[in-house]
Automatic annotation (TrEMBL):
GO terms for cellular component: TAT protein transport complex. It comes from Conservatibacter flavescens. Gene3D superfamilies: 1.20.5.3310. The lineage of its organism: Bacteria, Pseudomonadati, Pseudomonadota, Gammaproteobacteria, Pasteurellales. The chain crosses the membrane at residues 6-22. This is Sec-independent protein translocase protein TatA.
Length: 76
């Protein structure tokens, strides 16, 4: 029905192993894993930076609102 059966998938894997060898595939897998780890770390660092900026902006807004309230109380 147009899908890939398990046998076809096993034949493809066997051909890839024969063409590239296990050592090269292991190295490729390891390099790919390092790349994914680096990407995830960069994404987490970016989110942490954005969170810190948001909290800083939120604190500035809160401080400004509190300062305005204090000024209003002094004028009243």
């Amino acid at each position: 029905m147009g899908g890939i059966s398990i046998w076809q998938l096993l034949i493809i894997v066997a051909i890839v192993v024969l063409l590239f060898g296990t050592k090269k595939l292991r190295t490729l897998g390891s390099d790919l894993g390092e790349s994914v780890k680096g990407f995830k770390k960069a994404m987490n660092d970016d989110e942490t930076k954005k969170d810190a900026e948001f909290k800083s902006l939120e604190n500035e807004t809160t401080n400004t609102a509190q300062t305005e309230k204090a000024k209003d109380k002094e004028q009243a």
